[in-house]
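user: Please supply your own:

assistant:
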Amino acid sequence: MAFLVEDGSTVDGANSYSTVADADTYHTDRNNVTWLALSTAAKQAALIKASDYIDQRFSFIGWRRTKEQGLDWPRFDAYDDDDFLLDGVPPEVLKAVAEYALLTATAPLFLTPTYAASGQDIKTTRKKVGPIDITTTFQDAPSSTKNTIRELPEADNYLSGLTISGTQILRA
């Protein structure tokens, strides 16, 4: 799949919120040498993964403009905390994509939980070699997102004013 950036005009099939150049500028300003050392292809792949992660993890205010658009932004009826209309892709999304892209270049954003043969989530496993002692502790509740979603405060905080929790309020 080609690297196709959402420019705010509702690009069908877009798979990244950010250009490599914009992410490079963001990371250059913060002296993130890990990002700057990546190849262009690695940066594009990281930006696609970061954009996917954002759309899968967060529920945003407003509504997608078209069914065909590749990503969740741009949106209709999306207002920031100061009641300004958010047109195109908000700068907070671009900052978050840059942060998540840096993280996904070195580790997965979604974690894979460990399961026992019974299907239960494993919380901890302790192994002792002599004389053999294996202890397994299971999660108290069925699988939860805490097992698969990493806390990434710097990137997560950029999106906090753009997300909803459960229901949306309709403007008259």
